[in-house]
Every structure is written in C-alpha cells, then in structure tokens.
Design brief:
The complex is a heterodimer of chains A (90) and B (375).
Chain A: E1 9-11, E2 16-20, E3 25-30, E4 33-37, H1 39-46, E5 49-52, H2 54-64, H3 71-83, E6 87-88
Antiparallel strand pairs in A: 1-5, 1-6, 2-3, 3-4
Chain B: E1 14-18, H1 45-58, E2 62-66, H2 76-86, E3 89-94, H3 101-110, E4 114-118, H4 124-131, H5 136-148, E5 153-159, H6 167-176, E6 181-186, H7 191-195, H8 197-200, H9 204-220, E7 226-230, E8 250-253, E9 259-260, H10 281-287, H11 289-292, H12 310-313, H13 318-325, H14 342-356, H15 368-372
Parallel strand pairs in B: 1-2, 1-8, 2-3, 3-4, 4-5, 5-6, 6-7
Antiparallel strand pairs in B: 8-9
Helix pairs in contact in B: 1-2, 2-3
The chains are: A alpha+beta (90), B alpha/beta (375).
Bound molecules: iron/sulfur cluster (2 copies).
Chain lengths: 90, 375
Amino acid sequence: MTIQPDKIISFSPTHRLQWEEAQQKNVILYPEGMVELNTSSAEILKLCDGTRTLDQLINELEQKFATTGLSNDINAFLEVALHNGWIRQN
Amino acid sequence: MAGFDKTNNTPPRWLLAELTYACPLQCPYCSNPLDYAKYPSELSTEDWMRVLTQARKMGAVQLGFSGGEPLTRKDLTELVRHARQLGYYSNLITSGYGLTEEKIVQLKEAGLDHIQVSIQASTQELNDHIAGTASYVHKKEVAHLVKKHGYPMVLCVVIHRENIHQMQDILEMAEELGADYLELANTQYYGWAHANRDLLLPTREQFEEAERIAQAYKEKVAGKMKIYYVVPDYYEDRPKACMNGWGTTFLTIAPDGVALPCHSARELPGLDCPNVKDLSIEEIWHDSKAFNFFRGQEWMKEPCRSCDEKHKDFGGCRCQAYLLTGDMYNTDPVCSKSPNHQVIDAAIASAAAVALAPNEKPLLFRNSKNSREFM
Ligand code: SF4
Ligand code: SF4
C-alpha cells in the first residue's frame, strides 16, 4: 500500500492514539491489541488528523524539528501505518 | 512463590470485568465455572467504579466487560462512562441478546470503544441449538447495528465439532456482515466445555481441514477483515503461553469480586483468591498469595524446570494441568515432553469414539439448573 500524495491523511476512527502515563509512552489501542510507539512515530501520527496531505505533513515535521530529508522515513512509516489500518486516506 | 520481589512485577494491562454470571444463553462450551450458581452475589456499582479506578491507576488499559451477559447489568452504561473518563479502551463482550439500537447508541455516547458479538454458527438452526435460545436472527441484526453506529465490529465464533464443518460459511457470513475482526476461537476445554468435551472436540482431520480453509480466507480478506485464529491446544506439541505468564499482564474480576490471575483460576485448590471488597487492586496484584503463586519459575517441576523453552510458554496452563493431571504444578499435559501427555491422546480417542457411537449423549447446557448439580 502506498500513500497517495494528493489525498489527506486521517487517523482511523476505529483505533485510538493516546498517551499512557504508566508506560510513559504513546500507544495505539484497537480491538484485542495495543502497539507501543516511539516518540517520532507518535509525532507523525498526531499530525494525521484529517487536515494534511503527505507533503504538508513532511513540511510541518521538518519545520518543527528544524531539519530536512525526513521524507523517506516518514513515507515509509506511513505506509506501515496504512497497512496496519492505523490511518486512512479518502 | 517465596521471595518474589514486588518491584519486579509488571503492572496489569488487561482487565476483564465479569459483571455477572447471569446469561440468557446456555452455550455448552461456556468458560464460566460449572458451579457458578454457587456465587449469586454481585459487586455493587461503587465497587466496580473503585476497581476500574484502581486498576487504571496501575496501568491497565484494555478493558473487557464480560460475564455471563454484561447487558443484564443495569449500571453498564454508567460503568462504561467511568471507564472512558479514566482512559480505558473498552470492549463489550456480548451474546447480543437483548441489545437494542437505543442501547448501542447510548453506550457509544458513554464512550464504549468496541463491541464483540458472538455467533454460534452460520445457520439459524445450529446457532439456536448451541445457544440453547432462539437468538440467530437478532444477533445478525445486532451485528449490522454495531457496524452502522461506527464501532469496529468484532465477531466471535467458538469452534467445536458441531460447527467446524461450517468454517467456510462462517467466514463468508463474517465478511458479509462487514466484520472488521473475526475471532475464530477453537474451544478451550475448561468449565462447561470440559464437561462436554467428548461431544465438542473435533478430530484432527476436521481441525486441519478447518484451519486450512481459515488460513486461505485470511489471505483473501487481508486488509479488510482481520482474523484471529485461536488454536485448539490439544492438537499442538507445545502448550499456550498461558496469560502471558501468571500475574504479569491479566487481571480478571469475577462477578462476586474475587480477583483471579486467569478466569479459570477459581477452580484451583488452595489459592485463596482475594476479593476486591477486602483489598485494593494494588495489594491484590502485588501481595496476595494467589497472584504470587505461579509468578516466575520457582514453582516449576520437571520437565519444565530444566527445559530451555520455559521462557516461551511458562510451562503452559496451570488450570489445564490441574484439570487433566490432578496436580496444578505439573507440566501442561499438552506438551509432548509431559509425562502425562497420554491424557490428551486419550481425550482425543474418547471424543472420536463418542462421535462414532450410534446414540450420542446429549450436550450439557450451561444453565442454573445444571450448575446446581455441581455445587
Ligand atoms: S458462553 Fe454463552 S452461556 Fe456462557 S456467558 Fe457467553 S453467551 Fe452466556
Ligand atoms: S517442558 Fe514445560 S517449559 Fe518445556 S516446552 Fe514443555 S511445557 Fe514448556
């Protein structure tokens, strides 16, 4: 599955992303499961809120972390996220 | 048991709240204790509120409202709302019986995350026979409504000899109903299922055929419907890693408030399982005899004790060891290294003989009348 550049990315309505105080981690919750996220994955997913396309999302993260060249990593992670059903495009 | 350092304990992550043993259905594979009629008392709303708060504080995040049939509790919506405020990801595990659209909407507003509906078979006749109650038509209706109101829809079908031949139809039914997740749970032989084992255990050929069909379908619906396939451990060489390790992850609270390291544990002798009416979840988790009983590896006997796989499966299931060998410290007899492994072969042979017998004995249905026979 690939990310389509012209479509906005939103977080799946049937999953939940939340901060877990006890674990000091962001997690994704879904039926019968839980995935623990590292900080960068969580930062990316938080921007998948139905307002940005791939390019907009990359720009925003590069600005936030005052860096460039993140696009391959972000794209690769979002493909995994799409495959796992954490995010959707339509 | 002895000398366990509580700072090594991982906190509970999954909380199973068995709200009640009351249930309008009578599934002959029900995992409730055979003598459940002995425990008619139920925790109050305040007790449950406190349990949810305390367990959440320790780190529990996945929450299942189960039973019996949790819908029979009048305070369900209130508990769901409290759970949502605490940040749980909550699941209603229901037969669907008595679930109305109004209730589905009300629970959604209260913050319920998903609903797991069980269906007994792909045909009305068999479903209603196994459930012991006419419920098929309504269950399908409920599945549609769950979907309509935006919940992830989890369909659960318990598999056994009476319905295993329907595997293909069950998969098609789940897809047609728009299930996001399908749990194909091969019967685990505890409680009522153990009492009915001769009538429920499929043959190895049946099981292999069904698994082949399910695996093929898994590929077909990849990305659309997720299939969780729970293996029947009688046909495995190694036991399941029961509860991910005793007292590491799972916490079950029975309807009367008894806290259990696994939902069958109240049948084990001498554990003195604590009650949430007397102790906090924190005390129960860290300090109670029951939760420390099989923590770690100190308790193990041979062949587990010197086995290099003990980190993987923790010696298997304590309840199964007790049920099938009479000694809860034994290696789970499912393991091919167990000196008692022949009890599994004997169980399989016995079930096969019963399947071929001209007059099948009737199933023992899960209801209060039958339960009182075990008190
Ligand atoms: S397995 Fe069947 S009888 Fe047992 S609680 Fe669930 S619906 Fe009720
Ligand atoms: S002997 Fe015990 S630890 Fe080893 S594989 Fe069998 S059950 Fe697991």
